[in-house]
Amino acid sequence: MQYRRNDHQILIRIDKDEDIPAALLSVCAKEDVSGAVFTGIGCCGRAVLSSFLPDKNDFLDREIEGMLDLIALNGNIFTEHGVLGEHPHAVFSCLQAGEHRVLAGHLKSAVVRYTAEILLTVTEPIRKTYDPSLGIAVWDL
Asked: What average pLDDT does the segment 9-24 reach?
């Protein structure tokens, strides 16, 4: 991974065999970033997408493999109880059974196959807190 910071923006190139969420957290820890938004593109070989199931208050994970074009990556960096975290969502395009498919959801992991190029924009610190009426942690504004 390589990155370059320019004031409130950080250009990040994540290399083959590196995990995108882990790399984002690593850069933020090194640069003392406790709030940011990010967007990116790339190509992965393996990923885990997750969908929230409100009736079970749990996530359903789906592991995907192959030539996965990362056509959209969006999310934010936050702190919750003093711990740095990430909340990424991703959209992948791939071939399955000879047909193009689009798979999307909350991104738990994504191992880069060639490269991923991400623009991270530093914001003021973002803190999350648990909202009992929703059953999830949300931005504490």
From this structure: 98
- Say whether 21 sits in a helix, a strand or coil: helix
Q: How far apart are CA 75 and CA 38, in angstroms?
A: 5
> DSSP code of 127?
B
Report the residue count for the chain.
141
CA-to-CA distance for 137 and 80, rounded, in angstroms?
9
Backbone angles phi, psi at 22, to 5 degrees: -65, -40
Task: Please report which confidence band the pLDDT of residue 98 belongs to, taking 50, 70 and 90 as the band edges.
Answer: confident
Who's near 1: CB < 8 A, 6+ residues apart?
A: 12, 13, 14, 15, 18, 23, 26, 27
| Alpha helices, DSSP H, located in the chain | 20-30
86, 24 Cβ separation under 8 angstroms: yes
Separation between Cα atoms, residue 138 and residue 12, nearest integer Å: 26
Quote helix, strand, coil % in the chain, to nearest 5.
10, 70, 20
User: What's the mean per-residue pLDDT of the chain?
Assistant: 95
Query: What is the helix (H) or strand (E) element at residue 95, kind and residue range?
Result: strand 83-96
